[in-house]
Design brief:
about 250 residues, 13 helices, 8 strands
Protein backbone atom coordinates (compact mmCIF):
# COMPACT_ATOMS: atom_id res chain seq x y z
CA UNK A 1 0.00 0.00 0.00
CA UNK A 2 1.32 3.44 -0.88
CA UNK A 3 2.11 5.67 2.08
CA UNK A 4 1.50 8.78 -0.02
CA UNK A 5 -1.29 9.89 -2.32
CA UNK A 6 -0.59 11.89 -5.46
CA UNK A 7 -3.12 14.72 -5.63
CA UNK A 8 -2.60 16.78 -8.78
CA UNK A 9 1.15 16.22 -8.59
CA UNK A 10 1.51 16.87 -4.85
CA UNK A 11 2.42 13.80 -2.79
CA UNK A 12 0.56 13.97 0.53
CA UNK A 13 1.48 11.62 3.39
CA UNK A 14 -1.25 9.23 4.49
CA UNK A 15 -0.90 9.80 8.22
CA UNK A 16 -3.20 10.49 11.15
CA UNK A 17 -2.74 13.46 13.48
CA UNK A 18 -1.04 11.22 16.05
CA UNK A 19 1.22 9.64 13.44
CA UNK A 20 2.19 13.06 12.10
CA UNK A 21 3.14 14.27 15.59
CA UNK A 22 5.12 11.08 16.23
CA UNK A 23 6.99 11.55 12.95
CA UNK A 24 7.94 15.09 13.92
CA UNK A 25 9.14 13.89 17.32
CA UNK A 26 11.36 11.38 15.51
CA UNK A 27 12.73 14.24 13.39
CA UNK A 28 13.59 16.11 16.60
CA UNK A 29 15.64 13.20 17.89
CA UNK A 30 17.29 12.60 14.51
CA UNK A 31 20.37 14.05 12.89
CA UNK A 32 21.21 16.08 9.81
CA UNK A 33 19.72 19.30 8.46
CA UNK A 34 16.36 20.73 9.51
CA UNK A 35 13.29 18.81 8.36
CA UNK A 36 10.43 20.59 6.59
CA UNK A 37 6.79 19.98 7.51
CA UNK A 38 3.92 21.54 5.54
CA UNK A 39 0.16 21.16 5.90
CA UNK A 40 -1.43 22.04 2.53
CA UNK A 41 -5.16 22.38 2.02
CA UNK A 42 -7.07 22.20 -1.27
CA UNK A 43 -6.27 25.82 -2.09
CA UNK A 44 -2.51 25.31 -1.72
CA UNK A 45 -2.50 22.06 -3.69
CA UNK A 46 -4.41 23.87 -6.45
CA UNK A 47 -1.78 26.60 -6.30
CA UNK A 48 0.91 23.93 -6.63
CA UNK A 49 -0.92 22.44 -9.61
CA UNK A 50 -0.56 25.78 -11.40
CA UNK A 51 2.91 26.64 -10.07
CA UNK A 52 5.58 24.00 -10.70
CA UNK A 53 8.03 25.73 -8.34
CA UNK A 54 5.59 25.48 -5.44
CA UNK A 55 4.75 21.88 -6.39
CA UNK A 56 8.45 20.99 -6.19
CA UNK A 57 8.78 22.76 -2.83
CA UNK A 58 5.82 20.86 -1.39
CA UNK A 59 7.20 17.56 -2.65
CA UNK A 60 10.58 18.35 -1.10
CA UNK A 61 8.96 18.29 2.36
CA UNK A 62 9.88 15.59 4.85
CA UNK A 63 6.23 15.43 5.93
CA UNK A 64 3.17 16.72 4.09
CA UNK A 65 -0.19 16.38 5.86
CA UNK A 66 -3.73 16.88 4.58
CA UNK A 67 -5.06 20.11 6.08
CA UNK A 68 -8.58 20.18 4.67
CA UNK A 69 -11.46 17.81 4.16
CA UNK A 70 -11.24 18.46 0.43
CA UNK A 71 -7.81 16.83 0.35
CA UNK A 72 -9.18 13.79 2.19
CA UNK A 73 -12.13 13.51 -0.20
CA UNK A 74 -9.77 13.83 -3.17
CA UNK A 75 -7.67 10.93 -1.88
CA UNK A 76 -10.80 8.77 -1.69
CA UNK A 77 -11.86 9.72 -5.21
CA UNK A 78 -8.40 8.69 -6.41
CA UNK A 79 -8.69 5.31 -4.69
CA UNK A 80 -5.79 5.95 -2.30
CA UNK A 81 -7.56 7.22 0.82
CA UNK A 82 -6.11 9.26 3.67
CA UNK A 83 -7.57 8.10 7.00
CA UNK A 84 -8.27 11.52 8.48
CA UNK A 85 -7.84 15.23 8.04
CA UNK A 86 -4.65 16.49 9.68
CA UNK A 87 -5.16 20.22 10.19
CA UNK A 88 -1.93 22.04 10.99
CA UNK A 89 -3.43 23.40 14.20
CA UNK A 90 -4.39 19.92 15.43
CA UNK A 91 -1.01 18.44 14.54
CA UNK A 92 0.72 21.35 16.28
CA UNK A 93 -1.34 20.94 19.48
CA UNK A 94 -0.65 17.19 19.61
CA UNK A 95 3.03 17.85 18.94
CA UNK A 96 3.31 20.57 21.60
CA UNK A 97 1.80 18.24 24.18
CA UNK A 98 4.45 15.62 23.38
CA UNK A 99 7.21 18.24 23.33
CA UNK A 100 6.17 19.58 26.73
CA UNK A 101 6.40 16.12 28.27
CA UNK A 102 9.95 15.77 26.96
CA UNK A 103 11.10 19.33 27.69
CA UNK A 104 11.58 20.29 24.03
CA UNK A 105 11.78 23.83 22.68
CA UNK A 106 9.95 25.89 20.07
CA UNK A 107 10.60 29.25 18.38
CA UNK A 108 7.60 31.27 17.16
CA UNK A 109 8.01 33.23 13.92
CA UNK A 110 5.25 35.12 12.13
CA UNK A 111 2.08 37.20 12.36
CA UNK A 112 1.84 40.82 13.53
CA UNK A 113 4.17 42.36 16.12
CA UNK A 114 3.32 41.14 19.62
CA UNK A 115 1.25 38.14 18.52
CA UNK A 116 4.06 35.57 18.81
CA UNK A 117 4.84 36.73 22.36
CA UNK A 118 1.19 36.45 23.40
CA UNK A 119 0.96 33.03 21.76
CA UNK A 120 4.06 31.97 23.66
CA UNK A 121 2.56 33.01 26.99
CA UNK A 122 -0.54 30.94 26.31
CA UNK A 123 1.43 27.91 25.13
CA UNK A 124 3.57 27.93 28.28
CA UNK A 125 0.41 27.83 30.39
CA UNK A 126 -1.19 25.05 28.35
CA UNK A 127 1.86 22.82 27.89
CA UNK A 128 3.95 22.55 31.08
CA UNK A 129 7.53 21.61 30.34
CA UNK A 130 7.55 23.27 26.92
CA UNK A 131 10.29 25.85 26.34
CA UNK A 132 9.43 28.83 24.13
CA UNK A 133 12.91 30.12 23.35
CA UNK A 134 12.28 32.97 20.93
CA UNK A 135 9.88 35.17 18.97
CA UNK A 136 9.92 37.15 15.74
CA UNK A 137 7.05 38.81 13.91
CA UNK A 138 6.40 38.20 10.22
CA UNK A 139 7.20 41.70 8.99
CA UNK A 140 10.77 41.95 7.73
CA UNK A 141 13.09 43.24 5.03
CA UNK A 142 16.35 41.62 3.96
CA UNK A 143 18.31 43.12 6.85
CA UNK A 144 15.79 42.10 9.49
CA UNK A 145 15.48 38.65 7.92
CA UNK A 146 19.18 38.11 8.55
CA UNK A 147 18.69 39.17 12.17
CA UNK A 148 15.77 36.75 12.55
CA UNK A 149 17.83 33.86 11.20
CA UNK A 150 20.72 34.78 13.50
CA UNK A 151 18.34 34.87 16.48
CA UNK A 152 16.86 31.48 15.60
CA UNK A 153 20.34 30.00 15.28
CA UNK A 154 21.42 31.46 18.61
CA UNK A 155 18.43 29.83 20.33
CA UNK A 156 18.74 26.46 18.51
CA UNK A 157 15.09 25.43 18.97
CA UNK A 158 13.94 21.88 18.43
CA UNK A 159 11.03 23.15 16.33
CA UNK A 160 10.53 26.41 14.45
CA UNK A 161 6.92 27.42 13.77
CA UNK A 162 6.86 29.57 10.62
CA UNK A 163 3.53 31.37 10.33
CA UNK A 164 3.79 33.66 7.30
CA UNK A 165 0.81 32.32 5.37
CA UNK A 166 0.98 29.97 2.40
CA UNK A 167 2.81 29.79 0.08
CA UNK A 168 5.19 32.40 1.51
CA UNK A 169 6.05 30.23 4.54
CA UNK A 170 6.77 27.13 2.45
CA UNK A 171 9.05 29.09 0.14
CA UNK A 172 10.81 30.71 3.10
CA UNK A 173 11.44 27.36 4.77
CA UNK A 174 12.66 25.82 1.51
CA UNK A 175 15.08 28.69 0.89
CA UNK A 176 16.50 28.83 4.42
CA UNK A 177 16.18 25.42 6.09
CA UNK A 178 19.78 24.43 5.31
CA UNK A 179 21.11 27.45 7.20
CA UNK A 180 18.81 27.11 10.22
CA UNK A 181 20.03 25.49 13.42
CA UNK A 182 16.82 23.74 14.40
CA UNK A 183 15.55 20.21 13.99
CA UNK A 184 12.18 20.92 12.34
CA UNK A 185 10.67 23.84 10.40
CA UNK A 186 6.88 23.69 10.33
CA UNK A 187 4.65 25.96 8.22
CA UNK A 188 1.51 26.77 10.20
CA UNK A 189 -0.29 29.67 8.53
CA UNK A 190 -2.49 31.54 11.00
CA UNK A 191 -1.93 29.25 13.99
CA UNK A 192 -0.04 31.87 16.00
CA UNK A 193 -3.11 34.11 15.95
CA UNK A 194 -5.24 31.26 17.28
CA UNK A 195 -2.67 30.38 19.95
CA UNK A 196 -2.56 34.05 20.94
CA UNK A 197 -6.35 34.29 21.10
CA UNK A 198 -6.45 37.21 18.66
CA UNK A 199 -8.34 35.06 16.13
CA UNK A 200 -10.91 32.42 17.01
CA UNK A 201 -10.72 29.01 15.45
CA UNK A 202 -13.92 27.86 13.78
CA UNK A 203 -16.46 26.34 16.21
CA UNK A 204 -16.45 22.55 16.60
CA UNK A 205 -19.47 22.15 14.31
CA UNK A 206 -17.55 23.62 11.37
CA UNK A 207 -14.38 21.65 12.18
CA UNK A 208 -16.17 18.30 12.57
CA UNK A 209 -18.00 18.73 9.27
CA UNK A 210 -14.93 19.93 7.38
CA UNK A 211 -16.38 23.35 6.58
CA UNK A 212 -13.99 25.66 8.39
CA UNK A 213 -13.63 27.43 5.04
CA UNK A 214 -17.27 28.51 5.30
CA UNK A 215 -16.71 29.97 8.76
CA UNK A 216 -13.65 31.87 7.53
CA UNK A 217 -15.63 33.17 4.55
CA UNK A 218 -18.42 34.39 6.83
CA UNK A 219 -15.87 36.15 9.05
CA UNK A 220 -13.74 37.42 6.15
CA UNK A 221 -15.86 37.99 3.00
CA UNK A 222 -12.79 39.37 1.23
CA UNK A 223 -11.57 35.76 0.98
CA UNK A 224 -14.32 35.00 -1.55
CA UNK A 225 -12.16 35.11 -4.67
CA UNK A 226 -9.47 32.97 -3.02
CA UNK A 227 -12.16 30.46 -2.07
CA UNK A 228 -13.02 29.96 -5.74
CA UNK A 229 -10.07 27.59 -5.83
CA UNK A 230 -12.09 25.11 -3.75
CA UNK A 231 -14.61 24.24 -6.51
CA UNK A 232 -11.79 24.47 -9.06
CA UNK A 233 -9.86 21.89 -7.03
CA UNK A 234 -12.83 19.53 -6.89
CA UNK A 235 -13.49 19.77 -10.63
CA UNK A 236 -9.80 19.34 -11.49
CA UNK A 237 -9.49 16.24 -9.28
CA UNK A 238 -12.59 14.71 -10.88
CA UNK A 239 -11.48 15.47 -14.45
CA UNK A 240 -7.71 15.07 -14.27
CA UNK A 241 -6.81 13.53 -10.91
CA UNK A 242 -6.50 9.93 -12.09
CA UNK A 243 -3.96 10.93 -14.74
CA UNK A 244 -1.40 11.31 -11.94
CA UNK A 245 0.33 8.04 -11.04
CA UNK A 246 -0.05 6.91 -7.43
CA UNK A 247 3.29 5.09 -7.18
CA UNK A 248 6.39 6.88 -5.99
Amino acid sequence: MNNKVNILGVYVDKVSISQAADSIMSFISGEGSAKAVYTPNSEIIMHGYRDSELCDILNDADLLTADGIGVVYASKILGNPISERCAGYDVACTLLDKMGKEGKSVYLFGSKPGVAELAGENLLKKYPGLAVVGYSDGYFDAEKEGQIIADINSKKPDVLFVCLGAPKQEKWIYNHKNELQCRVCMGLGGCLDVFAGTVERAPDFYCKHGIEWLYRLIKQPKRFFRMLDLPRFAVTVLLKGKKFKQDR
